[in-house]
């Protein structure tokens, strides 16, 4: 595993994104962010707020991380502005996911008091899994943001 920026290149491209920190976090961010999206969508989105925010955040971050990943993979990130954009995007993703995680946990705690019927218990368990995945995604984006900031300072 290597750390991303040397003096010759601004950002890693191609297959190097799979072995450089922080870019190796792209795949886990896809997985855990996508799981939040799937788990929340598989339950009743009730109440619509804040669960609508959770859906927005998970879809937004999934789409933008996918776009970011392909830009890095294809080498479109070789301008000097990309380290800054990488830091900004990942800190925005952290703030979004943290706010969504707190809202999702709050709704899940509230719904836990009502989870007596078998169908309600299943939804409650899906919500718990979504909360866990949401906090894991938040942590992954946070780690990525920290290492992106270190790379930005070195570039």
UniProtKB/TrEMBL annotation:
PROSITE patterns: MARVEL. One of its GO terms (molecular function) is structural constituent of myelin sheath. It comes from the Eukaryota. Pfam families: MARVEL. It is found in: Membrane. The chain crosses the membrane at residues 24-45, 51-75, 87-108, 128-150. Its main location: membrane. Keywords: Lipoprotein, Membrane, Transmembrane, Transmembrane helix. Residues 17-153 form the MARVEL domain. The keyword Transmembrane applies. One of its GO terms (cellular component) is membrane. It is a multi-pass membrane protein. The keyword Transcription regulation does not apply. GO terms for biological process: myelination. Belongs to the MAL family. This is Myelin and lymphocyte protein. It comes from Sphaeramia orbicularis (orbiculate cardinalfish). The gene is LOC115433725.
